[in-house]
Design goal:
Length: about 60
Amino acid sequence: MDHKEDRELLRKVGFAEVEMNQLSRLRRDHNEKARLEAIANHRRLEFIRWLVRVGKLSEQIA
């Protein structure tokens, strides 16, 4: 489904234009949060890889 079809379906089931706009903002905000979390997770993994590469982190118990 595309954006236009989604809005038409919501309209058919009784959503007002303002409600559809709120849902769009909520979806956009959620997607942005998920994108930022993915970036942060990637950076954490890169840092851990660097720690292993330089010998600061290993599987051995100190």
